[in-house]
Amino acid sequence: MAEQWIYLDGQFVTKENAKVSVYDHGFLYGDGIFEGIRIYNGNIFKCKEHLDRLYDSAKSIMLNIPLTYQEMEEALVETLKRNELRDGYIRLVVSRGPGNLGLDPNRCPKASVIIIVEQLAIYSEEAYKTGLKTVSVSTRRNVPDALNPKIKSLNYLNNILVKIQSNLSGAGEAIMLNAQGYVTEGSGDNIFIIKNGVITTPPCYLGALDGITRQAIIEICHQKGYKIKEEPFTLHDVYVADEVFLTGTAAEVIAVREVDGRIIGEGHAGPITLALLEEFRSIVDKDGVKVW
Ligand code: PMP
């Protein structure tokens, strides 16, 4: 197998040599941000949108990214070229960098930038037809006035607790509510429901990441004439929906067949979900930055 090259603060190092300090505040405190991006057939899908979200997250937490936007895009392209990757996943991490054991970010003089690119294997093609079994969990989405879920921070403990509960229930993904009981998102994806031809996704202010795939699906809905709304809804609305699906960079558009023991629709991916997946897959190698 060819060597995997990791971008680490301007250098390319092998996987074995890609090491960061135990004093890095990303490690000590989850102090940093990240992006998960995909390359499809040599095209970094929605590269600008991902970098915009990265730089917005950085601004929000007052993290000074040591690369300009242009340099960051070049670093992504170079890492993909180095690894000869045409189709796969890109993990871009910016941590606060090494400091001391104290919390104070002023003790971290330079943020660290890491880019890892890999082949991606997530759900089988079969899973896109059968859909996922999901459960709702008791862990609530962290509230926007504590740590805003719009910031794609390295602090994923909220999501990990959700994943643990989901695993314990034997589910493939979980549905997180906010403190008021409104549906927000999955542990690593956004959620949509469809009832009588109307597609609804929760507004991000309820406590959801402003997913790039979520936005792409909203755009497709507008272009193709589907009725799409961003409105709050509850678990009851999910249980009685005709179709439910999740969106994310890794998951793309995947149907949900079961929620808390309630069978959704016919118990497999519904027609609108499959049509949206097809539309989505038709744009992924066009909309973005071409590497190859
Ligand atoms: N919500 C959370 C909590 C996530 O981690 C992700 C994955 N980045 C998403 C939603 C989906 O966002 P995107 O479509 O940008 O991957």
TrEMBL record:
The keyword Amino-acid biosynthesis applies. GO terms for cellular component: cytosol. One of its GO terms (biological process) is isoleucine biosynthetic process. It comes from the Bacteria. Its cofactor is pyridoxal 5'-phosphate. CDD domains: D-AAT_like (cd01558). Belongs to the class-IV pyridoxal-phosphate-dependent aminotransferase family. Acts on leucine, isoleucine and valine. Homodimer. This is Branched-chain-amino-acid aminotransferase.
